[in-house]
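QA checklist item 7 of 12: single-chain prediction sanity check.
[x] sequence parsed
[x] length recorded as 208
[x] structure emitted
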Amino acid sequence: MAGAADRVGTSDSEPGDSDRTAAAVSPEDAALVNACIAGAPGAWDAFVAQFAGLLAHVADRSARQRGLPLSVGDRDDIVAEVLLQLLRDDAAALRAFAGRSSLATYLTVIARRVAVRQLCRRSEAAPGAVDATHDPRPAVRDREEVEALLGHLDADEARLVRLHHLEARSYGEISRLTGLPLGSIGPALSRAREKMRAAAPEDQSPSR
């Protein structure tokens, strides 16, 4: 599908994987988000046409990373769930977009979170298919809020928070990527979250 999917291409990279200092949102994307929030005629259809390909790519990639089969129907279900998430609670997720990263990056984070949750549920429904080390919790809070707090952590702690809370990596995946023993990841993340809570304003402190 044309649009945002073209920015992703066929590689395994996603927006934000290697360029976390992406330029601010384009005027066109900002206008599209505002039009969707305002309920402008045709705005949501234009949004779906532009970004559905990106959401499908994220779903496919999340399934590949976990070695899980994903039919076209299952992928479409995940894309639909992402779109519902964007509209839920009076489009709260769209309203939360502050424009400090590209819209594609912001949507990728949300889509990955939803895809991991849906894939985990499908795995749990299949006997013997669950990885006991998989712990796909959603992101701590909005990506932009978390990124602002990462400067209070050392490099290793910041990497752990990004992997687990922003990229929804399981403990098993983090262990393979970092070489850390599986049992050390939970305590390290807990210490990092405590530092972030101490550094954040009281009403914006990261949740567990």
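[x] summary fact logged: The domain at 1-130 is CATH 1.10.1740.10 (Rna Polymerase Sigma Factor; Chain: A).
[ ] second reviewer sign-off
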